[in-house]
Amino acid sequence: MQHEKFHYADKAALDAELAKLGVKLPYSEDLKVLGDPVTFGGVTSANRFVIQPMEGCDGTADGSPDELTIRRYDRFAESGAGLIWAEACAVVPEGRANPRQLWLHEGNLEAYKVFVERIREKCQAKFGFNPVIILQCTHSGRYSKPEGTPAPMIAYNNPLFEKDKPIDASRIVTDEYLDTLPEYYAKAAKLAEAAGFDGVDIKACHRYLVSETLSGFNRPGRYGGSFENRTRLFRDAAAAAKSAVSAGFLVTSRMNVYDGFPRPYGFGISEADGKTPDLAEPIALIQYLQKELGYKLIDITIGNPYVNPHVNRPYDMGGYVPDEHPLEGEARMFDCVGAIKRACPELTVISSGHTYLRAFAPQLAAGCIAEGVSDMAGFGRMAFAYPEFAADILEKGKLDPKKLCMTCGKCTELMRAGKTPGCVLRDSLYTALYKETFLNK
Fold first, then answer.
1. I need a labelling partner for 203 at 20 to 30 A (CA). Which of 191, 254, 298, 404 fits?
2. Contact, 424 vs 408, CB < 8 A?
3. How does the average pLDDT of the chain come out, rounded?
4. Residues forming a β-bridge with 134
5. What digits encode the pLDDT tens for the residues 47-80?
6. pTM of the model as a whole
7. Residues 203, 209, 215, 221: is their CA dihedral positive or negative?
8. Omega of the bond leading into 150 within 30 degrees of 0 (cis)
9. What is the spatial distance between Cα 354 and Cα 364, in angstroms, rounded to a whole number?
10. Residue 311 is inside which H or E element, if any?
């Protein structure tokens, strides 16, 4: 169906559009379930809301949280969300996505201790509970820009991404280099525990290095071809992290279960048409993580925010007009999440993609839980625009339409321009930055 902007004034209008498209979304008017606590791996989230990892590109040169980082997490701490999934933090300096990406190491451990404690204190003071805080550990791979200019480290050449500017084959990381990475994930996990985080995320989404290896069907050697080889880096990094921390410390992942690219360049994709999700391999991998490595929590996402962002986060405005209706993309997201939950019923599953539904997002989140699609609801863009969203849902039973994320994509525009991203429409600091970057030239 043709792409169109969000325009649904009430539930009847939304239902009519869904019926026209022939798709369904979870939905429940009973929002009380969103305030229920949930326990996983020995920790308890006070409610079902998750702040998804949204990178601010605003750390210091040495990888510590800087002024804007602290400002953003102060807001997240006072959001009312029970789980704060902190943004991408590099495990090696060459794997930083920009010169201001967070990077935890021995030299700045004390800064992270202060950072985590500040989040806890602010949440405790406002709501009377301690949030669960997870740190996302990453190697940016093809998106590496540690000095501010592209320095990609790729698992294989991908013409869908590189098009008429193929990355030099010398930038393909060797098996020997990949062999060294699990110990860095282990080191990062150990430091994260020392800093006071409740867990670490072995980031395996959106085509960063661990994610990219999952689709390395044509890569030779120990990290390509077979399912065992393509999942090797992920499994080894998770196992190494698990071995480096105490029994009560969480090791989890934000994971792509569907890339949206045809084989041999996509994971979780049907060979028949190169478009339809086929979750057999993602399910097998998650079941391995659960049974062999003790995963209790998984955060599900799909698509790629740089190449097919309409799959990852349906929008009103972006760099291109998608060939599908945004609600079709929403339905795909929740179909994928639900398939994982059904296959792994004992795993606490976090869903993504709620923001597009704007004022209906609370009912979508509640519907996910009521219908067994997921156990927790993750919000990314909405947390940039409307950081107190969770408190408003829990205390008022609704969202303020004047504060909603409008899925305009301007936060991403700032990031792609090498700036510090934030909500251009709702936060005057980033409004000014956007004008300075794009309008006042």
1. 404
2. yes
3. 97
4. 85, 199
5. 999 999 999 999 999 999 999 999 999 999 999 9
6. 0.97
7. negative
8. no
9. 7
10. helix 309-312
**CA–CA separation, 94 and 103 (whole Å):** 10
As a whole number of angstroms, the distance between CA 229 and CA 179 comes to: 12
Q: Distance between CA 374 and CA 349 in Å, rounded?
A: 5
Question: 80-98: buried (b, 16+ CB within 10 Å) or exposed (e) per residue?
Answer: bbbbbbbbbbbbbeebbbb
- DSSP summary character for residue 373: S
Helix axes 11-21, 326-343, angle to 10 degrees: 80
Q: Cα separation of 367 and 34, whole Å?
A: 10
Contact yes or no for 303/260 (Cβ under 8 A)? yes
Contact 362, 370 (CB under 8 A): no
Residue type, 129: F
Residue with tokens 């990892």: 53
What is the predicted pLDDT for the residue at 441? 58
User: Residue 260 — left, alpha, or beta (φ > 0 → left; ψ -120 to 50 → alpha)?
Assistant: left
Q: What are residue 14's DSSP bridge partners?
A: none
Long-range contact set of residues 2-6: C-beta below 8 Å, sequence gap at least 24: 2/325, 3/310, 3/321, 3/322, 3/323, 3/324, 3/325, 3/326, 4/325, 4/326, 5/316, 5/317, 6/316, 6/326, 6/356, 6/358, 6/407
Q: How many CB atoms lie within 10 A of CB 283?
A: 17
3-state secondary structure of 120: helix
Residue that is written with structure tokens 């030299």 in the block: 107
Cβ within 8 Å of residue 437, ≥6 positions away: 414, 417, 419
pLDDT in tens, 165-190: 999 999 999 999 999 999 999 999 99
Please write the tens of the pLDDT for every residue from 326-353. 999 999 999 999 999 999 999 999 999 9
- For residue 312, give the nearest of 327, 325, 297, 330 by alpha carbon: 330
Q: Residue 383 has which token pair?
A: 């947390």
In order, the DSSP letters of 169-214 are GGGBPPHHHHHHHHHHHHHHHHHHHHHT-SEEEE-B-TTSHHHHHT
C-beta neighbour count of 280 within 10 angstroms? 12
Q: Residue 1: pLDDT above 80?
A: no
